[in-house]
Amino acid sequence: MAIVMQLTKEKIIQDFKMQLHEDFMIQNDEATADERFIALAKLVKCYVMPDWLRGRDEIVKEQKKTAYYFSIEFLPGKMLQTNLLNLGIYDLVQEALREIGVDLMDLVDAERDMALGNGGLGRLASCFMDSLPTIGAPGFGNGIRYKYGLFKQKIVNGYQVELPDAWLSSDGNVWETKKPHSAVDVKIYGNVYLVPQESGDLKPVYENVKTLRAVPYDMMQIGFKNDVVNNLRLWDVEIPEKYELDYPTLADRRRIEDITSVLYPDDATREGQSLRLIQEYFMVSAGLQTIVASYAKMGLPMAKIHEKIAVHINDTHPAMAVPELMRILVDEYELDWDDAWATTTQVMSYTNHTILSEALEKWDAGLFKEIVPRIHQIVGEIDRQFVKTWAGKVDTAVIDHTRIIQNNQIHMANLSIIGGHSVNGVAKLHTELLIEDVLKDFYLLYPEKFNNKTNGIAQRRWSQIANPSMSALLDKQIGDGWRSNIHELLKLEDFLEDATVQLDFYQVKQANKQRLADYVKKTQGIDLPIHAIFDVQVKRLHAYKRQLLNVMHIIKLYQDLKDNAALEITPRVFFFGAKAAPGYHFAKSVIKIINELANLINNDARLRDQLKVVFLENYNVSLAELIIPAADVSEQISTAGKEASGTSNMKFMMNGALTLATLDGANIEIKDAVGEDNIVIFGMDKDAVYAHYTRHDYNSRYIYETNPRLKRVVDAFIDGTIPNTHYEGHEIWDALISYNDEYFLLEDFEDYVAKQAYISELYKDKNTWQSKAMKNIANSGRFTSDDTIELYAREIWGIL
Ligand code: TH1
């Protein structure tokens, strides 16, 4: 039985004090919040250790089929609250600490965000890490232990400045355990020759390779109140003692250390750098060598490895898992190519997260050959066999579009699809687009591989942890069963028309808005009226996400208020939180514009607090936990067809915000869940967007010239309305008018403005508004990642 079952307040206090003695040689009353956090985290680790070890032993003993989720990004944020909650000791620990004069929240604040991810893709991986043990599935994570996470964003004179995120303390991360015992070697560079053996087989012989040591750091992933503990394994690089002579100078050593030094700060686009390719191979090779070795210990035939092991390729970054498993099976375990291929394709599965063409990963074959020569050979052979298999059976054009090597480039999505048995999109519309458009040739070849798995969220973090006041109200209204079974939120449906309950939810929202307003006051000195609509857009800055459309609406409101000093509008505060990839020029210009517009508006007394704009610096998971519960309106306004799913949309919904959305990604499924009356939809749908693509008839300049109100808004970018943005304003104006507005902001503008006006009217009727907000909360349970991952586990991996 789990240790935590026997814990008492007294025992926790005693253990906590002991831990402080042991780690820091101090008493509780002398300790800083940092020291207390570390002591508590270590204590939690001790409590969990037996379950963690038992879980591992059971998998070996019972030979359970296990899934490994390979991802170049994980974005857990802070772990203390999640771990306490999942262990079922949150309240007990909080009370115990309170008894000795310690506020748990101070310890929570002391933890650093673990931000080894850019945005939705990494955060989804972390939600899955929470959900896998929660549903009792043997599913482990595999990734890289970056020394620096996603850059820390500072705003200086309105511009984004990037600072390194040195998240690891000198002792590392308290949640991890270094396992030098399980280190493996990874080989890169050099030459490979195929030397014929007596048997007639060809054997690869390596020359001048560089050997890296991959050292794993394990982090426990605790299931929700079920004693199940899984593992997230992150790899760090070291120089193996045996090969020290290969790295004689300090510069040589640094180049190696660089491999796990930084996360690539690019969301949905990629810098084609060899370091990234090495990162990908390093993670894949270290992970697979370990997995195959553990399977080998079972003494079962290698050709049946798919019966015990599933490997998931999260976006294409780990796609080298396909040729690497082939290498291990063929070169090291001497399987026939065909047997190895048959099992490899059954082991592997792949999720596609975007259809943006600039995000589809391709590598120069020359670079590939230089860095991973054996993998290059194997990919060449996979490609050859693929072409051979389909030649004469389908149009040559289909083969030309789907083969892995085209024009001396290696197409990683093609490798992932050909090398696996499952390809999934992350929302219904996205999967449809894959099938009908982006991957239609593959669908012709392998219709059975395609399936949808709509994203989900680890609801515990986004409700119980992030929104304690709403949680307490839910307990009062529908009982606390929803905390373990999120579908019980549906019970709230019975109270949608109850004016007292509506008022209670209104008050909870206002309290959360006050919490956010206090933070803004403290960090930026801006006073915010909490009776205003809190209208929030937080996500990576990208042209397709259309933060600029939001900005255009704000400019319009500003112009209205300036035109008519007596005008009364429903007061609004617009919040933005967004990091731009450091090399993404346009996105950085949008950040500058937002900040200058905010300055202009916030300092104009004549607007009488009816309009405020706040750019929240350094948006990250912890800030999301503060912002999302305070939102009245959730902005999900991407050009239809471009946002594969979105996941913050689900978090906002769960916290009772109304979604203002295009029919894109998972917004469509949110609409299906709450009904048309409880979401605000605007703009072109995917068919309207695609019609423009086929007809080539979009003309933003025409719209601009024929709509004076819109023209005035667009001209505000260049006519001096927004101070200090001469350069950025022109860049934006050009994108919208000279370059024909790639993301159709102008076409969607009028409908967006109209729906925003509708929201302003609606908000005046608090009861109706709250009823709609409650409808959203009630139906948010269907977006739990527990259910999403259960579908992966059953339908793709076969581990349940
Ligand atoms: C995001 C998608 O843009 C988003 O719609 C989706 O909800 C999320 O993944 C989770 O499925 C993506 N992030 C990345 C990051 C990189 C490359 C492609 C994508 S797609 C580095």
TrEMBL record:
Keywords: Carbohydrate metabolism, Glycosyltransferase, Pyridoxal phosphate, Transferase. Gene3D superfamilies: Glycogen Phosphorylase B. Transmembrane segments: none annotated. The keyword Transferase applies. It is an enzyme of class 2 (transferase). InterPro entries: Glycg_phsphrylas, Glyco_trans_35, Pyridoxal_P_attach_site. SUPFAM superfamilies: UDP-Glycosyltransferase/glycogen phosphorylase. It comes from the Bacteria. Its EC number is 2.4.1.1. It catalyses: [(1->4)-alpha-D-glucosyl](n) + phosphate = [(1->4)-alpha-D-glucosyl](n-1) + alpha-D-glucose 1-phosphate. It holds the Pfam family Phosphorylase. Its cofactor is pyridoxal 5'-phosphate. Phosphorylase is an important allosteric enzyme in carbohydrate metabolism. Enzymes from different sources differ in their regulatory mechanisms and in their natural substrates. However, all known phosphorylases share catalytic and structural properties. Allosteric enzyme that catalyzes the rate-limiting step in glycogen catabolism, the phosphorolytic cleavage of glycogen to produce glucose-1-phosphate, and plays a central role in maintaining cellular and organismal glucose homeostasis. Belongs to the glycogen phosphorylase family. This is Alpha-1,4 glucan phosphorylase. It comes from Pseudolactococcus chungangensis CAU 28 = DSM 22330. The lineage of its organism: Bacteria, Bacillati, Bacillota, Bacilli, Lactobacillales.
